[in-house]
Amino acid sequence: xxxRKCVFLARLHPxxxxxxxxxxxxxxxxxxxxxxxxxxxxxxYATDLLVTDYSSSMFDFMYSGKxxxxxxPDWDSYDRGFYFKKExxxxxxxxxxxxxxxxxxxxxxxxTQMKRTAxxxxxxxxxxxxxxxxxxxxxxxx
Length: 142
What we know:
Layout: E1 9-10, H1 20-23, E2 32-33, H2 40-45, E3 50-52, H3 57-62, E4 68-71, E5 92-94, H4 100-106, H5 110-122, H6 131-141
Parallel strand pairs: 1-2, 3-4, 4-5
């Protein structure tokens, strides 16, 4: 879609990271495995598109303005509960590998961006990307 070579980075949930060698056959040969990389925030910063399941990293990543795609083939049987209704979650959700290309083509849509903005407003987020600056400024004022 973007006309350039992309790198696939895989970071497995800590509960299954020990099975990385077994799962390698599922990914392209040039995949970079980042399960042992210590700082998830650095990985998110380097990412252009996050494909995840139910990881809360999608909410951290959402503030970057970059697209999130949820791969949730087990949505109907997932029983850990949710804070939000499925229709309120501002990410494209797919449940079959065959839908991946269509989803990627739809990621930059105005509808997707509007849904993300509405979600952030609805949860009453005040994140503006400069919390550290504001904190230090207050400390100096004090």
